[in-house]
Amino acid sequence: MGSKKRKSKMNKHFVISTLLILIAAAGGFGQGTQNSTDTADDALRGSGRVNPSTLGMEINIPLGNFPGRGINVPISLSYSSKVWGMKSLGLIDGGIVSGGCRSFSDPVYAKNSASGWTTSLAVPYIEYVGKDNLFTTEGFPLASGLCVNEPTPNNNYATYIRRLLIHVPSGGTHELRADDTPITFDRSGTDSYSPWQQHNWDRTYWAVDGSNIRYIEDSTTTPATYRLLMPDGSSYDFSESLDSIEEATVRKATKLTDRNGNLTTYDSQAGTVTDTLGRLLTPPITPTAPTGPTPVGNPVVYTLPGMTGSYKFSWKHLKGESAAKRLNGF
User: Is 34 among the domain residues?
Assistant: First the structure.
């Protein structure tokens, strides 16, 4: 009896093994011999995660990579679901007490992104958050004076901190400070300590996040120096003129130089990048999202220079126009 059971099991194993061999052989005959393509994008992989700090979903999608002389130019799209923020508009009339004031804030959607999307080909820039965010001498945000019931301030002074934000391609941000000393100035006239006086920003700034990034701003040199020094020996140079992005005071990058002197240049007006080999690269998306969805059957076609194939992008309302209006208070 035991011999029959063993023989039955052996027969089953033999049948299963034979089937596996036949299936493998059929797969081998069904596909002809083909060498590996060994293309440059074989190693490109998308990634996704939940940011433990913001709890937002983040996605990175590589589109291509252009090897250069010293500096490679990767082209990718990044997405973060953390798209909503709040902006203080100061004080307005009202509150618990009759004749009082209450704080008023406004929701801000997709700041510094196209509905949450950014690209590695975006032009880096410096944001002067210390200049755009003033405080009272008591340390409270400086009100805009919209509340008629607001008591007369004790003085006409305001304070600020020499504080910058560096926005690098793909949406990363680093905070830099010259020091933590509050600077007080008189708003009633031309004060030498005013944040709108350029000499007050001529300092060396250090990253506060441990990234060892350093920024030097000196308007007294010829030409003026606006340079961001990276830990790997590369550096970004920024324009001598200030610009604005979404009401923020910014200074945009003009070039990236590696430690061997190879240059990548930025054209902030056209939004293009010229790599170390002279190739003109256009970002796959604009800094801000379009005002309406992409027409059906007419997607945005993006082609990488020197590469075959293309990508097609379409924008659409995920919740519909009525939901978007409700979110914005319409």
Answer: no
pLDDT value for 23: 42
| Residue range of the domain that includes 162 | 42-289
Report yes or no: 177 and 161 within 8 Å, Cβ to Cβ.
yes
What is the tens place of the pLDDT at every residue in 133-156? 999 888 888 876 677 776 666 668
Sign of CA dihedral 94, 98, 99, 100: negative
Mind giving me the DSSP string for 156-181?
A: SEEEE--EEEEE-GGG-EEEEES-S-
**Secondary structure percentages of the chain, helix, strand, coil, to 5:** 15, 35, 50
Q: What is the pTM of this model?
A: 0.77
CA 67 to CA 266: how far, in whole Å?
Answer: 17
Residues 6+ apart with CB under 8 A from 82: 51, 54, 55, 56, 116
297 located within any domain? no
In this structure, how many other beta carbons lie within 10 angstroms of the beta carbon of residue 318? Answer: 9
**Strand partners for 57:** 50
Q: Residue 284 is which amino acid? A: P
Q: For 24-47, how does the pLDDT look when each residue is reduced to its tens digit (9 = 90+)?
A: 444 444 444 444 444 444 555 567
Establish if 317 belongs to a structural domain. no
Q: Quote the number of domains for the chain.
A: 1
